[in-house]
Amino acid sequence: MPSQSASPLLTIVICNYNYARYLGGAIESALGQTARDVRVMVIDDGSTDGSRDIIVGYGERIDAVFQPNGGQVSAYNHALRRVGTPYVLFLDADDLLLPDAAEAVLTAFAADSDDYDDSAPCVKVQFRLEVITADGTPTGVRVPQSNAVADCGERLRAGWLYPSPPGSGNAYRVDALRRIFPVPVTRDNIHGADFYAIYGVALVGKVVAIDRPLGRYRVHRGAAHAPQPARADLSLANAEDVLAGATQTARRWAILRTLAADRLDIALPADVLDFSIEKARFATLLYQAPLATRWRWLLRESGRYFHTVAANPFWSLRKKLAVSCVTALCLLPVPSISNRAVRLIANPMARAGH
Fold first, then answer.
1. Count of alpha carbons within 13 Å of 200, Cβ hemisphere only?
2. Of the candidates 340, 168, 309, 306, which has an alpha carbon nearest to the alpha carbon of residue 238?
3. Mutual orientation of helices 275-286 and 242-259 as an angle, nearest 10°?
């Protein structure tokens, strides 16, 4: 590990809960950064699987924090009370960073600070992530598919969620995050802290995208993550099935609206616009559904879905046409084609044949 500077610029925070199987890899990837100006903090959220022994084993190489189990939101709140560097990157305990991730992020922040407008500083640098399976096998998929972030703050104020990688693909200015956090921890709001970071921070400054992968995002798939085993291949998130994920996004948006109004004096619209939400509902309803159900959806329930396609401010015309054409295949009376089309829309992993 390169020696750390006297005044580190970036803290990599690893929030862990019962991921002992992967935790050592995440910590090693954080400690193995080529940048010198990096600290590593591990917040263990009351794990019961041996994670503590792994963390303690790193001694003074990391800043170890142990808290009672309170969820990801609580862990983010705790981390932001302790971080003493200008920038922070939250790395999920089952994900990995490439060795030059911190260096690339700090270079991007520095380049923007040389000539930024004081009214719109860079508050987040995001980068692509290579998707790997639970056992670490590369899938050939990268997320996000689109890295269009121009005017994302303005679009967010109109209700559009901009394309962003999962939590591990984002680094933030700490002072900007502290305008959003702490986020209230309630019975219905213990997970999804990265939602408030990713979208909340874009309300107070500019987002910059690095158009290459700097980390690896692990996807856990299977019956344990889906309400029905037959629909396991429609899973769009590590811990939430497709429909639950869409519902949680709507709930988190409502909380973000309150935070934006109270702390930033920004009025966000009541409804959130995001193709990911609509495709989750679409896939849950139409996958393996009878042909009559598919056509009934088209005639009666497809309005918001096609609005998030046709009016999407982050998509090219080519992508809008491609998604519309694949959607049309979902209406064919040939199940092998129509169900495959639903999977292609619902899950990027399906595009790689997984």
1. 32
2. 168
3. 150
Q: Residue 88: is its pLDDT beyond 80?
A: yes
> Tell me: the pLDDT tens digits for 290-323?
999 999 999 999 999 999 999 999 999 999 999 9
Give the Cα separation of 273 and 84 in Å (integer): 35
Please give the radius of gyration of the chain, using alpha carbons only, rounded to the nearest integer. 20
99: DSSP letter: T
What fold is seen in the domain 10-219?
Spore Coat Polysaccharide Biosynthesis Protein SpsA; Chain A (3.90.550)
Q: Counting every residue, how long is the chain?
A: 354
| CATH 3.90.550.10 location in the chain | 10-219
Say whether 213 sits in a helix, a strand or coil.
strand
Could you read off the pLDDT of 114-137 as tens digits, one per residue? 655 556 799 999 999 999 999 999
Between 113 and 152, the more confident residue is: 152
**What was the pLDDT predicted at 119?**
63
Peptide bond between residue 182 and the one before it cis (omega within 30 degrees of 0): yes
